[in-house]
Design goal:
This is Glycosyl transferase. GO terms for molecular function: transferase activity. Keywords: Transferase. It is a single chain. The chain is an alpha/beta fold and 402 residues long. The protein has one domain: Spore Coat Polysaccharide Biosynthesis Protein SpsA, Chain A. The protein is 50% helix and 12% strand. The protein contains 15 helices and eight strands. It has an eight-stranded mixed sheet, with helices on both faces. It starts with 10 loop residues before the first strand and ends with a helix.
Length: 402
């Protein structure tokens, strides 16, 4: 993506192919002497047995500027946790594993629940929330980056480009990664390119150019799982516990940071990881559920911006969304042809049909529960209510490791 176009209220940092990885890593190594850098990898135990994570760790082991790796481990029993300790022991950096299903972290969660502050349902949002809190409150680093555990096209340039904008003296407090989703034969990223982008444009058509919608639409890949953040800003951010994590986090960044402190960076020429099934006939699974929860997250945020949401608005929104999404199918067909990729109009239209139902169903969910909490409490509130929780969290992770 070696262009240099800037669009919207945030800075876009491009990979123009003019700087070597060795030069970038050398500068980050110099920076890390005064600003320690930590990498968070939220992971299911099953990903330890998948094709991506092992090679990723072999690459991470060679990164010179990283001092700390934080693993959020979900769906693991005791034997699996012990295996995870051995699995991650290949890393020369200091490794902390948050065993979320272990008795000590469950005890921490019970203390939070007693105060009405538990993240609630298991999932990636809960995993990331605990890991960010651990990094910020236990003094692990000054800059923290997060990426997924299943990146099949991983290389050392990805974390370097993700860390650099926040770690350097450019004045950014938050950086979002973007890339082209492709497995080499097909385009990926259906939820982002066929759901979120046309939904945001339909909302702008219906509601006008709200600054929140302009902010979201400025991101080239708003649903990417890769971001970096200054540790000092972590305590301000609330995040959803469900599949609205990425869009909800951007909503919080919009609320908490000046757009001049926010950027996006090109972190990979091509990116591929495991793909979710569409599940067009089951709104509780796959991309159907994901799109519904993303839309619900946006609707709840719009309500806090003073927008009145009605059944009539959602019906108009569905019609506008559908027209825009179908137009984009034509664009992506031409894009795929130019790049020699296979493309199925039928499969794309099946996805759009499922996503159009999500526009309405998320609206019905919002109207049925307009006051339901959408976010996990931020760490500032947790520490205010329970000042001993950071110490308990750090101690639980250390005792598990021992």
């Amino acid at each position: 993506m070696s262009d240099f176009h800037q669009n919207g209220p945030i800075a876009t940092l491009h990979d123009l192919g003019t700087r070597s990885l060795a030069s970038l890593e050398a500068e980050l190594t110099h920076i890390a002497r005064r600003r320690p850098l930590a990498l968070i990898i939220p992971s299911l135990y099953s990903e330890l047995e998948g094709p991506a994570l092992g090679p990723m760790l072999d690459t991470i082991a060679e990164i010179p500027y990283l001092s700390t790796i934080i693993i959020g481990l979900d769906q693991a029993d005791r034997e699996q946790y012990l295996h995870a300790q051995k699995f991650f022991a290949r890393l020369p950096q200091t490794v902390h594993i948050l065993w979320h299903d272990g008795p000590r972290l469950r005890d921490v969660d019970a203390q939070l629940a007693a105060a009405g502050l538990s993240p609630g349902q298991p999932g990636k949002g809960r995993n990331v929330w605990y890991c960010l809190g651990f990094a910020a409150t236990c003094g692990m680093a000054e800059v923290v980056a997060v990426h997924d555990a299943d990146i099949l096209t991983y290389d050392r340039a990805l974390p370097a480009k993700l860390f650099y904008p926040v770690a350097s003296d450019a004045g950014f407090g938050f950086c979002k990664g973007y890339y082209a989703r492709s497995n080499g034969t097909h385009l990926g990223g259906r939820v982002s390119r066929l759901f979120l982008t046309p939904l945001l444009r339909a909302l702008k058509l219906a509601l006008g150019p709200l600054s929140f919608l302009e902010f979201l639409d400025a991101f080239r890949y708003p649903l990417s799982g890769e971001f970096a953040v200054a540790a000092g800003d972590i305590s301000k951010l609330r995040i959803p516990a469900n599949w609205g994590l990425e869009i909800g986090l951007l909503s919080e960044v919009y609320r908490s940071l000046n757009p001049k402190q926010v950027c996006q960076v090109d972190i990979a020429a091509r990116y591929d990881h495991k793909h979710q099934t569409l599940s067009p006939d089951d709104a509780t699974r796959g991309l159907s559920r994901m799109s519904r929860e993303i839309a619900l997250s946006i609707y709840r945020k719009l309500a806090t911006e003073g927008v009145t949401l009605t059944p009539e608005l959602f019906r108009a929104l569905k019609a506008s969304y559908l027209r825009g999404a179908l137009d984009l199918i034509q664009h992506y067909h031409s894009d795929a042809r130019l790049n020699g990729l296979e493309y199925s109009f039928h499969d794309e239209e099946v996805a759009v049909d499922a996503f159009s139902r999500a526009v309405i169903e998320a609206g019905e969910d919002y109207l049925a529960t307009p006051f339901e909490p959408a976010y996990i409490s931020n760490w500032s509130r947790v520490i205010s209510a329970l000042p001993d929780i950071p110490e308990a969290l750090c101690d639980a992770v250390a005792r598990d490791a021992a």
